[in-house]
Design goal:
- It is a single chain.
- By secondary structure, the chain is of the alpha/beta class.
- The protein starts with a helix and ends with a helix.
- It has one domain: Aldolase class I (TIM Barrel), CATH 3.20.20.70.
- About 45% of the residues lie in helices and about 15% in strands.
- Bound molecules: ligand FNR.
- The site of ligand FNR has 24 residues, from α1 and α13.
- Belongs to the IPP isomerase type 2 family.
- It is found in: Cytoplasm.
- InterPro entries: Aldolase_TIM, FMN-dep_DH, IPdP_isomerase.
Length: about 350
């Protein structure tokens, strides 16, 4: 049953090591160029950003985590309260369970109740065209995310392995809902080519969710009797820094960089690479034990982002986007091979 699976995911992610083992996000290959004369007042730095007409106090998104199990209700309530307090955007986990089992609806509706003014993002799978409007209604969502998770489906014992027709279904979802539709991966990243296909299908927002953070092969390995396949594909995917640069080079729609981002310094690098915002899931699940922990984590994130902006002389997120950076190592190798000129970043 889906609801039991949701609880297992929460418990595994909270209690086991579910992050990539050897592959990293690639942000260690990115250096913003220090400005010894920033000519900026750090206290005046503006982290605000606007997403589809809604002004947010920080470019930080809490990306899809949960819902669909009574235990998830409390987590969603905590996340909603801090999102409202800090005026940041919040995504919920897959809403399929609640669309099919009305008794689970309150595990999602609790979010809008506690975050009346927040930018909220609903969540369904690509084939779930028939659930799209219901998902929007249950959450009172501002944006609907469609999750892409072929790796998880491959390793999960009950996985859906026929991915034919997903692009068509995504295109139809963008036609039938009257809010913007986002496509999001779940930890393997999105390539330039896939980003173009998604935008051609009508998607108006991409959350890249690259490799280097939570590995869904890892999560499903802990649920499988046979660990062989999960172990083999544990580190599969496009590193987050690479996927961010690929998607930014390919499409004009706003981009969230995510998957293994853990602080404001990495966020600054992601934004200078071309992202408009950044997202995190696992750290918010782990901090959801108390409001204080969540608030402190957001405070550290915002302050580390502000320091990085101060050190490159950026007053606003738009100025940070224009900051120069140097790309080295494996990340440069990857981008070179893919025809993305890294000098466009270092000599802006
Ligand atoms: C997730 N994630 C996720 N994504 C999604 O689109 N629908 C979902 O239902 C879930 N469920 C979920 C549960 C839990 C417990 C976690 C930790 C994550 C994936 C999430 O949004 C994100 O793409 C990845 O976790 C990678 O980001 P982090 O965790 O490395 O910051």
């Amino acid at each position: 049953m889906i609801s039991d699976r949701k609880l297992e995911h929460l418990l595994i992610c909270k209690n086991y090591d579910v992050e990539f083992k050897d592959k990293t996000t690639g942000f260690e290959d990115i250096e913003l160029i220090h400005n010894a004369l920033p000519e900026v007042d750090k206290n005046e730095i503006d982290l605000s950003t606007s997403v589809f007409g809604k002004k947010l106090d920080s470019p930080l998104f809490i990306t899809a985590i949960t819902g669909g199990h009574p235990a998830a209700k409390e987590i969603n309530e905590q996340l909603a309260i801090v999102s409202e307090e800090n005026n940041i955007a919040l995504g919920v986990g897959s809403q399929r369970a609640a669309c099919e089992h009305p008794e689970l609806e309150d595990t999602y509706s609790v979010v809008r109740e506690n975050a009346p003014d927040c930018l909220l993002i609903g969540n369904i799978g690509a084939p779930q065209l028939h659930l799209a409007n219901k998902a929007v209604e249950i959450l009172d969502a501002d944006i609907l995310a469609i999750h892409l998770n072929p790796l998880q489906e491959s390793i999960q014992p009950e996985g859906d392995l026929d991915a034919r027709g997903y692009l068509e279904s995504i295109s139809e979802i963008t036609d039938i809902v009257d809010i913007p539709v986002m496509a999001k991966e779940t930890g393997c990243g999105i390539s330039a080519e896939t980003a173009k296909q998604l935008v051609d299908a009508g998607v108006s927002f991409i959350d890249i969710e690259g490799a280097g953070g939570t590995s869904w092969a890892a999560v499903e390995t802990y649920r499988s009797e046979d660990r062989y396949l999960g172990e083999l594909f544990w580190d599969w995917g496009i590193p987050t820094a690479v996927s961010t640069a690929e998607v930014a080079s390919a499409v004009e729609v706003p981009i969230i960089s995510s998957g293994g981002i853990r602080n404001g310094l990495e966020a600054a690098k992601a934004i200078a690479l071309g992202a408009d915002s950044v997202g995190m899931a696992l750290p918010f699940l782990k901090k959801s034990v108390s409001q204080d922990e969540l608030n402190q984590f957001i405070h550290y994130f915002n302050d580390s982002l502000r320091i990085a902006m101060f050190l490159v002389g950026a007053n606003t997120i738009e100025e940070l986007k224009q900051s120069r950076l140097v790309i080295s190592g494996k990340t440069k190798q990857w981008l070179d091979e893919r025809g993305i000129n890294t000098k466009n970043y270092s000599r802006r």
